[in-house]
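Troubleshooting: if your tokenizer reports a length mismatch, compare against these two reference records.
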Amino acid sequence: MQPDPGKNRLVYFDNAATSWPKPAGMIEAMGDYSGMIGGSPGRSGHRRSLDAGRIIMETREALAELFGCDDSLRIAFTKNATEALNMALQGLLHPGDHVIASGMEHNSVMRPLRFLETQGVQISVVSCSGEGLLNPGDVRAAIGPRTRLLVVAHASNVTGTIQPIAALGQIAREHGFLFCLDAAQTAGVLPIHVAEMAIDLLAFSGHKSLFGPQGTGGLYIREGIERQLRPLTMGGTGSRSEFETQPDFMPDKYESGTPNAIGLAGLGAGVRFVLAEGIDAIRRKEEALTERFLNGLASMNGVTMYGPPDAASRTAAVSFDIAGVSPSEAALELDERFGILCRPGLHCAPAAHRTIGTFPQGTIRFGFGYFNTEEEISIGLEAIRSIAPGA
């Protein structure tokens, strides 16, 4: 295969960072909001403000349907999953509390936890297998008398490894502590039902598999938890304006300041796209692409793949390295020679790379999405063969 110059072709394999392209409906929804609504939701009584509030409520309702949530007001909007995780961790944990995390967590979990550790919170990081899988039995062994929270990524952004969420939620429920799920990599591509999975707090990103714009996300908060969860920020909410104290009800307690209404209009359209296409159909498409890629990598000498060998046990994020070529060098060559866009390095998850043995150099990560094609997978495999010595 003769490589095409990157400027003549674009293959987007960075969906684990942010999805692209977006559905046409998402772009239209943001344009319609900007051109025909534009009001500040909840801050006025005129028709444009009311229309803006309606759009935000429709987005809540779509998310509640997706996550099996009976009350859409249990969802508080944030600017991303990182803010949602900080809201959960910093709002809930106090000095003396004990929290359990896995050895595959993103820095959006580990950095807040390491900060809280300096404030007297005790942390247990439970080791995972070389493929990144967490053993529920090891979580049971880590439980202590002051355990307050278990926080786990539904799937790794490095290896795509899917954790046994239902079993982990059941352990937390049995032992009387809370379960926080980081669904940044899975919301929109794997089924999530907060009640059936015993999820107390669900942090999600809007700009990945929910096909929304950047700057959107949220935190589902099970009923009653708001009585013990401090807000990260306080201020104007458009409600109870006669009081100088923060509202104590959902979602206003956690949504101070003018919301990203245009972004939430786009997020609502993205979620409705997911609901219309169907989680199962999206998952089947991404799983088939991942299986095709894994089978191709398996036949190459000098290429090491990390994570589960079967696509059914992982999302569409695949990390690998090429012998004798640094991840950054390989990614640059993939971009410049083949027009393939991917991400090299540590992926903001040094704990995960320590677990799989790729710290500090990291890996090359291909993140496939619903809009990728089998032809693009073939292009990716041929490009890797061209770069890998002896492949």
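Reference record two:
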Amino acid sequence: MAGIYISYPFCSQKCTYCNFASGVFPKDLEARYREALLREIRAHVWEWTPDTVYLGGGTPSLIDPTFLLNELPGKPWLEATIEAAPGTLNIEGWRAAGLNRVSLGVQSFVTAELRRTGRRHTAETVEHDVAMLRAGGFDNINIDLIAGLPLQTATSWNESLDWIERLNPPHVSVYMFEVDEDSTLGAEIILGGKRYSATDTPSEDATAEMYETAVARLKTMGIERYEISNFARPGFESVHNLKYWQLAPYIGFGSDAHSFDGHKRWQNAESAQAYVEGAPREYSDANADEKFFVGLRLMGGVRPDAAEWQRYEAPIRRFVDGGFMETGGGLLRLTARGVMVSNDIFQEFLTA
């Protein structure tokens, strides 16, 4: 079955680590954006009925999503997720709208780390939110964490993991901070500056060690890694996000939203302003190599056909011999060692 992604890129503040096309924008732009979003959804010709919906951003929990979700077919959906900033719950409204999964953008449970990045919540806010969500019937909860934030140490990282153990969510996402020019913190690090606590960020090696610590600790909690950045108890894997990695079709609405119909890909204008102004979409043909580029992110790996085993024989042999990949039962998958250099491995399959 196919899925729907809706982009709502508006936030109450822009976090220093964020490299998404989201932020604080004028109220009049937000109103025009809502109108443009509704026009795009209403103009879409539905060739299939979706079974998953994902409302991301930005901070879509700042709005009542009913006006958007009422326009979509397929309700009740198998899985319908909203991304939420801690302290912005609307449990009754979300349930009435058809949502059944909440992804909390926690990033850290340590106050000093949160304040350096522009986050306003506390660990106690998250604890209260999780309790309220469960009391309101939301058992499918994800908590996001980021390794590599300013001031973060092995000790403080374990403090955040202690909170995960205490709250016992069924799904956890763990991302390693990406140093790139698309975030204010990343751009400052690249420039060698000191703003946004750029000099207080952990090294790449320290960040990688934090990630590996999370893998090990989450496993002891029964929260297993099923994709490079995603961990879940059995049965709580994100049905919607699995579509991306398994090359199932999905439609994206809103700025910077991507779509895939099994043959072609297209992307809406990146900025909210350009989207509202009607900037054209960008189209491209799907590439056969994507099977490996996205599928190898899953710990279950991919199943190459006979021609693919032959085509990629050289890099597969090299990575297996080096302990970065393994085969078995007709599958090709990354090892724990391979996960840590996955981007380099993926590039080999794009150029082989």
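Descriptive notes for reference record two:
- The first helix runs from residue 27 to 43.
- The longest strand covers residues 140-147.
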